[in-house]
Amino acid sequence: MEMANLQDLFVDCLKDLHNAENQLVRALPKMAKAASNPDLKKAFETHLEETKGQIERLDMIFERLGESPKGKKCLAMEGLIGEGKELMEEDAEPEVMDAGLIGASQKIEHYEIAGYGTVRTYAKLLGNDVAAKLLQKTLDEEGATDKKLTALAESTINIDAVEAD
Question: Which of 19, 35, 59, 155 is deepest in the core (most CB within 10 A)?
Fold first, then answer.
Protein backbone atom coordinates (compact mmCIF):
# COMPACT_ATOMS: atom_id res chain seq x y z
CA MET A 1 0.00 0.00 0.00
CA GLU A 2 1.34 3.39 -0.98
CA MET A 3 1.31 5.92 1.84
CA ALA A 4 1.17 9.31 0.18
CA ASN A 5 -0.36 11.20 3.09
CA LEU A 6 -1.54 11.06 6.68
CA GLN A 7 -4.91 9.62 5.63
CA ASP A 8 -3.13 6.59 4.12
CA LEU A 9 -1.08 6.14 7.28
CA PHE A 10 -4.24 6.50 9.39
CA VAL A 11 -5.98 3.70 7.47
CA ASP A 12 -2.88 1.50 7.65
CA CYS A 13 -2.63 1.96 11.43
CA LEU A 14 -6.36 1.25 11.83
CA LYS A 15 -5.93 -2.02 9.90
CA ASP A 16 -3.08 -2.97 12.21
CA LEU A 17 -5.23 -2.29 15.29
CA HIS A 18 -8.17 -4.19 13.80
CA ASN A 19 -6.01 -7.25 13.31
CA ALA A 20 -4.48 -6.83 16.78
CA GLU A 21 -7.92 -6.77 18.40
CA ASN A 22 -9.01 -9.86 16.48
CA GLN A 23 -5.89 -11.71 17.64
CA LEU A 24 -6.69 -10.62 21.20
CA VAL A 25 -10.26 -11.96 20.95
CA ARG A 26 -8.75 -15.40 20.35
CA ALA A 27 -6.15 -15.04 23.13
CA LEU A 28 -8.23 -13.65 26.01
CA PRO A 29 -10.29 -16.82 26.63
CA LYS A 30 -7.03 -18.78 26.95
CA MET A 31 -5.67 -16.22 29.39
CA ALA A 32 -8.88 -16.36 31.43
CA LYS A 33 -8.64 -20.15 31.52
CA ALA A 34 -5.01 -19.98 32.70
CA ALA A 35 -5.82 -17.53 35.50
CA SER A 36 -6.54 -18.97 38.94
CA ASN A 37 -7.54 -15.72 40.68
CA PRO A 38 -11.30 -15.21 40.13
CA ASP A 39 -10.93 -11.42 39.88
CA LEU A 40 -8.25 -11.77 37.21
CA LYS A 41 -10.33 -14.33 35.33
CA LYS A 42 -13.27 -11.90 35.43
CA ALA A 43 -11.06 -9.01 34.25
CA PHE A 44 -10.03 -11.04 31.19
CA GLU A 45 -13.63 -12.02 30.46
CA THR A 46 -14.80 -8.41 30.81
CA HIS A 47 -12.02 -7.18 28.54
CA LEU A 48 -12.97 -9.80 25.96
CA GLU A 49 -16.43 -8.24 25.70
CA GLU A 50 -14.90 -4.74 25.55
CA THR A 51 -12.54 -5.89 22.82
CA LYS A 52 -15.46 -7.12 20.72
CA GLY A 53 -17.02 -3.66 21.08
CA GLN A 54 -13.72 -2.06 20.09
CA ILE A 55 -13.69 -4.13 16.90
CA GLU A 56 -17.25 -2.96 16.18
CA ARG A 57 -16.14 0.67 16.58
CA LEU A 58 -13.20 0.09 14.23
CA ASP A 59 -15.60 -1.50 11.73
CA MET A 60 -17.79 1.62 11.95
CA ILE A 61 -14.77 3.80 11.19
CA PHE A 62 -13.79 1.63 8.22
CA GLU A 63 -17.34 1.77 6.89
CA ARG A 64 -17.41 5.57 7.16
CA LEU A 65 -14.04 5.72 5.38
CA GLY A 66 -15.17 3.32 2.64
CA GLU A 67 -12.20 1.10 3.43
CA SER A 68 -11.75 -2.57 4.27
CA PRO A 69 -10.19 -3.53 7.61
CA LYS A 70 -8.47 -6.52 5.97
CA GLY A 71 -4.97 -6.82 4.63
CA LYS A 72 -2.68 -6.21 7.56
CA LYS A 73 -1.21 -8.53 10.18
CA CYS A 74 -0.18 -6.97 13.49
CA LEU A 75 3.20 -8.52 14.14
CA ALA A 76 3.58 -6.69 17.45
CA MET A 77 0.38 -8.23 18.85
CA GLU A 78 1.40 -11.61 17.49
CA GLY A 79 4.67 -11.30 19.44
CA LEU A 80 3.03 -10.06 22.63
CA ILE A 81 0.46 -12.85 22.55
CA GLY A 82 3.27 -15.30 21.80
CA GLU A 83 5.06 -14.19 24.96
CA GLY A 84 1.87 -14.77 26.95
CA LYS A 85 1.42 -18.20 25.37
CA GLU A 86 5.01 -19.10 26.25
CA LEU A 87 4.33 -18.07 29.85
CA MET A 88 1.16 -20.19 29.99
CA GLU A 89 3.21 -23.24 28.97
CA GLU A 90 5.49 -22.82 32.01
CA ASP A 91 5.12 -25.01 35.10
CA ALA A 92 4.35 -22.16 37.49
CA GLU A 93 2.57 -21.94 40.81
CA PRO A 94 -0.96 -20.55 40.20
CA GLU A 95 -0.23 -17.28 42.02
CA VAL A 96 2.99 -16.81 40.04
CA MET A 97 1.17 -17.58 36.79
CA ASP A 98 -1.43 -14.92 37.64
CA ALA A 99 1.30 -12.34 38.27
CA GLY A 100 2.91 -13.26 34.95
CA LEU A 101 -0.44 -13.04 33.14
CA ILE A 102 -0.95 -9.53 34.47
CA GLY A 103 2.49 -8.53 33.22
CA ALA A 104 1.81 -10.03 29.79
CA SER A 105 -1.60 -8.34 29.67
CA GLN A 106 -0.22 -4.96 30.59
CA LYS A 107 2.34 -5.17 27.79
CA ILE A 108 -0.61 -5.69 25.44
CA GLU A 109 -2.60 -2.84 27.01
CA HIS A 110 0.33 -0.44 26.74
CA TYR A 111 0.78 -1.36 23.07
CA GLU A 112 -2.91 -0.73 22.44
CA ILE A 113 -2.87 2.56 24.35
CA ALA A 114 0.03 3.76 22.18
CA GLY A 115 -1.71 2.64 19.00
CA TYR A 116 -5.09 4.14 19.82
CA GLY A 117 -3.53 7.39 21.02
CA THR A 118 -1.73 7.69 17.70
CA VAL A 119 -4.77 7.04 15.50
CA ARG A 120 -6.97 9.28 17.63
CA THR A 121 -4.47 12.10 17.09
CA TYR A 122 -4.39 11.39 13.33
CA ALA A 123 -8.20 11.44 13.23
CA LYS A 124 -8.24 14.86 14.95
CA LEU A 125 -5.64 16.25 12.55
CA LEU A 126 -7.61 14.92 9.60
CA GLY A 127 -10.79 16.56 10.89
CA ASN A 128 -12.50 13.20 11.39
CA ASP A 129 -14.28 14.03 14.64
CA VAL A 130 -16.49 10.92 14.58
CA ALA A 131 -13.49 8.60 14.35
CA ALA A 132 -11.64 10.62 16.98
CA LYS A 133 -14.53 10.21 19.44
CA LEU A 134 -14.85 6.48 18.75
CA LEU A 135 -11.10 5.99 19.15
CA GLN A 136 -11.08 8.04 22.37
CA LYS A 137 -13.75 5.74 23.80
CA THR A 138 -11.52 2.74 23.09
CA LEU A 139 -8.48 4.56 24.47
CA ASP A 140 -10.42 5.25 27.68
CA GLU A 141 -11.37 1.55 27.97
CA GLU A 142 -7.78 0.42 27.43
CA GLY A 143 -6.57 2.85 30.10
CA ALA A 144 -9.23 1.64 32.54
CA THR A 145 -8.26 -1.99 31.92
CA ASP A 146 -4.61 -1.16 32.57
CA LYS A 147 -5.52 0.55 35.85
CA LYS A 148 -7.70 -2.39 36.88
CA LEU A 149 -4.84 -4.82 36.21
CA THR A 150 -2.44 -2.64 38.21
CA ALA A 151 -4.87 -2.53 41.14
CA LEU A 152 -5.27 -6.33 41.06
CA ALA A 153 -1.50 -6.81 40.91
CA GLU A 154 -0.73 -4.41 43.73
CA SER A 155 -3.59 -5.38 46.06
CA THR A 156 -3.45 -9.18 45.92
CA ILE A 157 -1.93 -11.03 42.99
CA ASN A 158 1.70 -9.96 43.24
CA ILE A 159 1.52 -10.28 47.04
CA ASP A 160 0.18 -13.84 46.67
CA ALA A 161 3.00 -14.60 44.21
CA VAL A 162 5.60 -13.48 46.78
CA GLU A 163 4.09 -15.88 49.32
CA ALA A 164 3.69 -18.79 46.84
CA ASP A 165 5.58 -22.04 47.16
Answer: 35
